[in-house]
Predict the structure.
Amino acid sequence: MATVNDVVVKIATVNGTGSASANGLLMKSIFRMGIPVVGKNYFPSNIQGLPTWYEIRVTGDGYQSRSDRVDIMVAMNAQTYARDLADVSSGGWLLYDSTWPRHKQLDRDDVTVLGVPLSRMCNENFDGARARILMKNIAYVGVVAALLDIDLDIITTLLEETFADKKHLVDSNMKAIRLGYDYARENFVCPLACKVEAMDGTSGHIVIDGNTAAGLGCMYAGATVGAWYPITPSTSLMDAFRSFCSRYRTDPKTGERTYCIIQAEDELAAIGMVLGAAWNGARSFTPTSGPGISLMSEFIGFAYYAEIPAVIFNVQRTGPSTGMPTRTQQSDILSCAYASHGDTRHVLLFPKDPKECFEMAQSAFDYAERLQTPVIVMSDLDIGMNDWMVPDFEFDENVVRDRGKVLSAEQLEEMEKFYRYMDVDGDGIPYRTLPGVHPKGSYFTRGSGHTRHGAYTEDSAAYQDVVDRLLVKWETARQTLPEAEFEVSRFNKAGLLTIGSGDGACVEARDRLAAQKINLDYCRVRAFPFSDAVKEFIDQHEVVYVVEQNRDAQLRSLLLLDAGVDPAKLVPLLHYNGMPLNAGFVVDRVLEEVARGRAA
Amino acid sequence: MATVNDVVVKIATVNGTGSASANGLLMKSIFRMGIPVVGKNYFPSNIQGLPTWYEIRVTGDGYQSRSDRVDIMVAMNAQTYARDLADVSSGGWLLYDSTWPRHKQLDRDDVTVLGVPLSRMCNENFDGARARILMKNIAYVGVVAALLDIDLDIITTLLEETFADKKHLVDSNMKAIRLGYDYARENFVCPLACKVEAMDGTSGHIVIDGNTAAGLGCMYAGATVGAWYPITPSTSLMDAFRSFCSRYRTDPKTGERTYCIIQAEDELAAIGMVLGAAWNGARSFTPTSGPGISLMSEFIGFAYYAEIPAVIFNVQRTGPSTGMPTRTQQSDILSCAYASHGDTRHVLLFPKDPKECFEMAQSAFDYAERLQTPVIVMSDLDIGMNDWMVPDFEFDENVVRDRGKVLSAEQLEEMEKFYRYMDVDGDGIPYRTLPGVHPKGSYFTRGSGHTRHGAYTEDSAAYQDVVDRLLVKWETARQTLPEAEFEVSRFNKAGLLTIGSGDGACVEARDRLAAQKINLDYCRVRAFPFSDAVKEFIDQHEVVYVVEQNRDAQLRSLLLLDAGVDPAKLVPLLHYNGMPLNAGFVVDRVLEEVARGRAA
Amino acid sequence: MSYIGKPKVAHPKMPKNDLGLTARDYEGTVSTLCAGCGHDSVTAAIVQAVFELNIEPHMLAKMSGIGCSSKTPAYFVSGAHGFNSVHGRMPSVTTGANAANRSLMYIGVSGDGDSLSIGAGQFVHAIRRNLNMCYIIENNGVYGLTKGQFSASADIGSKPKKGEPNQQEPIDPVSTALSLGATYIARSFSGDKEQLVPLIQGALLHEGFSLVDVISPCVTFNDHEGSTKSYAHTRQFYHHVVDADFVPPAEEIKAAYAKGSAMPVELHDGSKIVLRKVDEQYDPTSRASAFKYLRERFNAGEITTGLLYMDESRQEMHDLMGNTRTPMCQLPLESLNPGAGELKKILNRYR
Amino acid sequence: MSYIGKPKVAHPKMPKNDLGLTARDYEGTVSTLCAGCGHDSVTAAIVQAVFELNIEPHMLAKMSGIGCSSKTPAYFVSGAHGFNSVHGRMPSVTTGANAANRSLMYIGVSGDGDSLSIGAGQFVHAIRRNLNMCYIIENNGVYGLTKGQFSASADIGSKPKKGEPNQQEPIDPVSTALSLGATYIARSFSGDKEQLVPLIQGALLHEGFSLVDVISPCVTFNDHEGSTKSYAHTRQFYHHVVDADFVPPAEEIKAAYAKGSAMPVELHDGSKIVLRKVDEQYDPTSRASAFKYLRERFNAGEITTGLLYMDESRQEMHDLMGNTRTPMCQLPLESLNPGAGELKKILNRYR
Ligand SMILES: Cc1ncc(C[n+]2csc(CCOP(=O)(O)OP(=O)(O)O)c2C)c(N)n1
Ligand SMILES: Cc1ncc(C[n+]2csc(CCOP(=O)(O)OP(=O)(O)O)c2C)c(N)n1
Ligand code: SF4
Ligand code: SF4
Ligand SMILES: [Mg+2]
Ligand SMILES: [Mg+2]
């Protein structure tokens, strides 16, 4: 099938061989041609020597999720050759390094195999083992460029930007590109039937990963204290924050820093530091992943009960326990919503992509300070570590950020007496004071039983008074948090509901299903507790397919518990094998349910 | 109102003054008269000098929960005098130490105040500050004995048993008892209208607390490794295990021990030790409370996924965070059911009293070993630290305990190859091997992604295969665990459902409601996941009142998620101020709901 | 835990400090600890120390974990903010608090259970960062609040009230801190206020991590015969090696030091600690020799006390990082981002 | 992590140990670490050590946490059971495992991140219990698996690949272990198999807690110039003080020791460790002097290696508790309760 700007290229290599930059170059060059792209990286949980894949979906119609097919497989890893060949869609192509012989027995009739002697060419043209390996990767970019008809000028420009000060590297890279490009043009019919063509689909967009976006968001939010313990896939969030801050928050003259990043000894300490800093009035945060959340849970409960703001980024990965650290999932929803023993519940935000990571990284601090409670931004590996094409981020300098109810020295001066946990405004949110501001503001923060006045108590009524007020605050949160996104028509009886990185696949699935005359309304939830509108959305439909990336229908569980909706209406569509969600899965599962007689 | 064997005595003292033994003596003497009693201790979270209360309910009809009235208040603490007087039910009595004057302004017309110069009497009759304080407590026992008509011979016997080798202590204690007793008989009309009379309501029963019972159960279960970190209210469980083991598991000749108790450095370590020991085939356990569960959650998820047996006793206390460590609640239900990040769920057992603590302490090991997963016994402070009158424990020496699917050296010898995570029997439970048993049994236990063969994997299908099997195991657990207790009549449309220490109050509430012609069926759940019968019970009623001791309706939440019942049917009756549940609360709440038009 | 308020009537003739406050102004709510608990004496020493140092109450931050000892911040300086965190995690909270506001003075009160068992990791890492705080361990060899289990500082052979003597090697916070390079290490005894007060003062003013390990007997669970953390045992085997006097910036050192030589060390704010060597052999400036001495005395059954090690040369956490002196929490939010225009430029890197 | 199986064909002429096994029989699956990683050399040393010690593979328990280092137990002795626990918690799992079955031999492999940051508390307490295990830290100064952040053992001034040099005081596992009283403490280098193998053998046979701190460079993230945990730096500043030879029970000590004096120490199973002093000054039997020496050399920039401290006199965990020698997990369940009759008697106490 001949297509334009609708092709999926998957590259199989070995990690630690420098293929990442080659793959990035390939993706970027297509993006620079104005064509929307989706890039997904499937990498192992080790440092060097294991199979790794990169998948580029060229998607002229701008879909956001990974595809469910492979048109061109660049099979650079002998170890996974069989599996890679099997993965190619019928009618597709497989590119391999013909320097060495390959398993002919595995050949498929419906796949065209293209051999390019990449190693030989690079060995002949470059010196040194390391350079030869690197250049082999760049050479396959050249081959693919020829096969898809990617603009070589754009590649050149990209290389010039990357190696601004290193002209010789631009030259050697271009030489490798040329080797592949020319070989392909000489030996194969180029371009293939699936090819790319410059278009205007990317202006006003950038390509960025969610962790970088969140790190940038934290800087823009004015976060000053970041405490963390390294854990995949959240590590690059703090790396980004650090690199933006070292550029923009370091006095160029004195070298003095207006940010403080602490690599904690573990996650228990990281969250402790965040609480200490927030108690003192700094915007503080910690990025982590599942195991970190488990370790933080005692302190998260403390923050809920002592009412201390805290921003936590949970970049979710696959599985219980250590699981698959380099695969994606949305499986910490329940553990985050109810983290810690006792009656606790926590505000969650669900960004759908890097742009929302940037935005929610900022608003999370506002909510945390406004609500005086931990706010957990529920990202995942797919969003956090993959490159997404998203609209440009915006920042309005005139927006005054919400610092919540903090009493100033002047206000304290005028008060007769300050009581920490009084519901003065009826919204369940008390006033707080910061240490060092005014003598009248002092109080004793504690996770043990306390009264509305902030005094220690073991009295039943005084204790209950405070935990009951926290429920009032919860309802305030419900009104305060970002509203879900809806697409509703009057006629549809069924709806699709998802969160976060499920969005792309759901949007695409809706289009595909609509093409089959199955029309679904749509709701993308952005926060927990759920707004009234989410409940209404469910109430107004006969059936709602809840699409989420975990085994135990955790989002659906929260909907039952917090929105109090009818369980019979909520049909779980669960994807939890660690790969990012794709539209095909959603379409198939909806069709299955419809075939079983569910509403559509 | 004149009553026989239906009276509530509450004693207000200061902790650290030795009143605990006086109160125990009082309760025991009534029990020895054959009259059922309920004892509740309300103590502060400190060691000395703060108000503390002990409440003895004499309950000829054998109810198990605390009462909602106070007939006789023994007000020994000036600090809480006002509050204590206010607590007395109309028509009741207040006993105070008339050595010193008291707040006459506070007097109530409907309460009879009885002054006894306890301090003066004791100062005159005993030497030394410490003895005088202790004897003052014993003296009020004498007063109450006279007021209620408790048999002095029984008190004497009890003292003789307690101070078997210390005759002089028996004498001094009896002297103090006599001081109080005689003073009362001389100055008041004794006995009061509310009095006790010997009956035959306690034979075949003992008075014991749940932690002692659980510690005894662990010894009988053959537990050999106990790891723990002290935390109220679970500490006395390990103390009991230690004391039973030091008596019964220490070789009388060599002094060698067949048990190993490790005071861990914290709860993270305690659960790690339990897993290490269980992996090696020992029955191992840890007692803890809420904060400990939070800290253990990473390891609990590991055990779920790596399938390692572990027995955890969670003696629940009040509140999120440190909360009120000496008050009771059932508020860790959600955090235990879903402890840890990722898709995890855990088996819970809900003992209702010390007898079930003894039994479940044993069966918990069977379930853990059979199901190869953590089993959490959800006790609470009320059960664990209060004295309960319960039927004698039984132990059948002929019952062979279930050690689960562990391959022997012989079995391994005969196998071609052993694979750790294969579902050979279709019940979702694989076979395991123990280190050191046979070379063929060796495998690598890990919390990272693994295949059914036990090999490391990052493969989507192989990963999903294992977590899907865990769901099969979950269904096996559902069939395996102890069935709920039901009381069902054909005619009732409404039911009452509870767990654990909620039982006593619910049983009593049902009787009281029945007296008002409100008949409720009853279900006491004993395990999570819930059996099919629990679901049926709910399905068969129009409304089910779910009585639990937390703010967030956590049991009800689990019922929605795991039993998939109709939320509209489940009406939450929530009690969470830290005091043990009483029947009055249940009755009032049901009446409220009925008044609102709910089925009854 | 305060059922009873404490009357705050100061006698008009009570001495006042430079801020015009009396010692009363540095008290807290009434202690709920057992009568005679060592911790209450430490509380009193802290009150005196901060009173004399003229610390504005609200510029002091009182940090703690969980335990009888960790309750004590409620019992001193009511006018200071306090943070009673979770068990064993005071160091991390203090680290974050200090990161956010370096202008406050941090006093952390912990127990041997809180710091050496559940909190061992955080204790170690606060030292490693040279966190600017005064860290007091009220060391009684037991878990007081959970009723008397041995803690990790219990000595081999120390007897419990009932049961068997401890057999495990004790963790000595002082040697551990020496091995980790803490920059101010002192040991004292709750029963020796004279020694303790200046040690706390020095610890408060030292820029960096200051450890004050205070033997603070638990009268209820660990003050019987055979206990090596009892009042009697401590008094008997107590051995001062280097005492310290604290001299405020303005004052000159004029006291005459009878025993041993006196060595003044200047602190960052210009005040001084005068080390008075009681034992001439002892060198409080060398980790190696301090460690050796301590072990030898330990083996001889002695409890070495005083200002055991001091290093004014190492930078504290913020300075190691090159952070601004303005407290992070006081930086205006608007000043912390490069604006909309710069964002555009940043985005261009991602095209 | 084993995508490829490893062919297990042993050459017929390969040397066999007393059990008739070849070194091949002590290998594991193919390593997935970076080519040149120090950890792979430690793996090789372990293989040789256990091969030579004639350990039955299934009687060895391989314990670890999380990290590149913690993966290595998969790469040696496939025939042994392994427990790859969670990050930093290997010590507690090993404690429990040992509590249940004292008849196995325990080897724990950890990293500097795993042991000195998240695992610091558990590390400390395993030492305190004198847990009978061989604890190997594959110390590379960085977090390898999470891509090169400094660990707590990074030296002051050590340079990262990019970014700023480390400023924080390192945690030295050896000095920490000395301050805590570990009973066998060694340091070595992954590049010095000759020194490393007998140190591991001694550690395995020592009854009690044995620490082997192995400088094991991370070629990917910490082997560049300026890194103090690089091959080059370690080789340059490497300083043997006491080497050790392991002599099995049966054999007599007959080797002649050229440099320094030789001191045989008998182990519990009758085998011996012969300490060969390379540096006459060094005394491996005194915590105090060992600490002093180590600090002085450390200040001089040297990396002191060898068997640095040994104490055969202290009892290990079980013996401290007086536990039976029969593994707890092998006690028949029926033997562990006093029966129904005794239960009746027990209940009578509660009437
Ligand atoms: C996570 C957690 N585990 C256990 C406890 C129970 N607990 C409270 S205080 C304490 C020990 C206190 O000992 P220490 O720090 O020495 O203080 P002390 O009471 O002796 O002054 C323990 C174990 C807790 N509060 N939190
Ligand atoms: C609770 C938790 N936090 C963080 C991580 C991420 N993590 C994996 S390995 C590692 C550090 C490993 O460093 P080290 O122990 O020195 O081993 P190396 O890789 O250097 O051999 C970290 C932080 C994790 N697995 N679990
Ligand atoms: S129990 Fe011990 S530490 Fe706690 S208050 Fe009493 S004496 Fe002090
Ligand atoms: S990253 Fe470093 S520690 Fe990890 S395998 Fe590679 S070289 Fe070894
Ligand atoms: Mg203590
Ligand atoms: Mg490392």
